[in-house]
């Protein structure tokens, strides 16, 4: 029997990330592909103690249905950290769910949605289910270019989706003056900003730039996550929104999963309530900063001329560009890379339109230093070969 | 600033259930409104021991990102219980999420969706976000009437949504011969069946009727839940679907929340793997059966003539009908009931069309027996007054 499915489901194709995650399950593969945080960064002992307290305190409440908005003490904790009223905070089942809820509340078929070039693949997927028309905003190596936002470009846009801190996939951080310009232009043109910020705490030096939310709380939907500072297996994120949008997001959430698991919310709150994050996050910053330097050093040693990459100030990713104009496609090269037991994520799926196929994303946080060195050496050799045998290189 | 929101979000109105849950938070209210399972039924000690094992065994895996399909041992456990291949099983964040995913994959704006009369409010909400046209199928006190399904009624329907076991809100169980007739007609007319079965295990005598899934695995999407047999605060449900639909549901889930929390999946599996459900479910059946009898006895003592209700064989609900033809509206009467500190859920929101406003749902599982007696006595008096002063009664 062939069942009739929705138009949106017909458009769903197998995700590049899914296919790649399958490959990287082989232990011999050195994977720079995953977006997984390092398990070494999970505060296991603190979470185990917190869970014991949840069972000791009020297990019946921890295991019962609860309010859609989320566990009040956890919402208060978040509200305080972000200096907003608790009535604006909604707990979500990972920040991926926040993307789904935002799409439900804001996107009709054909709605204009502004995205960075490139942008987070998971967001493009979540939004796509609701059939928007994406408009790509130009970026350079500092991120989104606010001066590109004109009345014409933004006309009728439901929102602009941005990742100002250590963006997935590029690792770029938007400078302060660009944040100010972005908020000013968004205000001028009446564009709602959706700020996705899972990596904001992961600045290697600990310096943090103000969020877009802090610059204009009534014009920003802010998305945060415990996945990179506590543990992703809890699937805990949150969204801070202006009151009228908060209310709609809650209603959409109620229809989507009633509420995020009470149990994980209470475990997370018991884990962080005494200030653990202030002690714990610096250890993640140090770990990731060290891993990043190892990869940057290896890239400097092994990459052939013409390959370029950024120097992240935080986060989990480096964005690499193979020489332009040679017709190089990182997706095609990945097949050979995997044969040599190294994986990365090709850049093309991160573009809403006109993909730059010479780009790729490298994640460095879960790979031991000696394997980073080894994997980058293999990639360096492979890219050298690819450049030498590129269609345009041969033609020249 | 008034932001432009989606057409579906404009349709979202405050849910009757949400408003009622607020009222019932006052401790003096005797609430027959909640659909909450009894906390006395949560196997807390077993879950606490299971959680300790999860932390002891492999905490890094329990706290890390994982596959969208769900934790394989838990999927295998479910596949075995339902005698299907594990490749058909997808773990969801509560069965509410299964409703959302099914809607995403199967409903376009204007798609015909067949529902029982009345049907589960949470399903109507989840489906409504995707803007279907509901067609209500007639029911009587045994549930859905299969002979109502004709070629004309079912033409072009994306699916038929049914709760054959102890339906929410009516508590009705579909007899075996109706199940057989339903499956036969669905097959004849090419209608996909969506079987929602959170209460199937809660037969008071332990006798269970075959699922629609077991009668035609390739024509049924089956939804199950751990909420009523373990604990709802874990938000763990599952969906069993024919392979091509399973694949689409997984893709939709990936965009919706990546995966259900790894932590809760492992805790649930560690709780049930040694056969706990076989020992535990009989205790829930006994508890709920006893509570149901207390309410049935109280209803028989206190309800005025003309009020009728069913005698559930399982589940958590009794469906009550005030006399017809008097213009009685259980929603209007609820305001007075709450003033007298008793709550229930009015029947109207459970109808996709043409609500019968003289109906209401009573939940009995969380209220102590003496409070059931007290609350039903108050309702009996109130309904007697309402009947006496009903518009049509006065006019007569």
UniProtKB/TrEMBL annotation, chains A, B:
It is an enzyme of class 2 (transferase). It comes from Cupriavidus yeoncheonensis. InterPro entries: Aminotransferase_I/II_large, Class-I_PLP-dep_aminotransf, PyrdxlP-dep_Trfase, PyrdxlP-dep_Trfase_major, PyrdxlP-dep_Trfase_small. Homodimer. Its cofactor is pyridoxal 5'-phosphate. This is 2-aminoadipate transaminase. Residues 48-377 form the Aminotransferase class I/classII large domain. Belongs to the class-I pyridoxal-phosphate-dependent aminotransferase family. SUPFAM superfamilies: PLP-dependent transferases (SSF53383). The keyword Phosphoprotein does not apply.
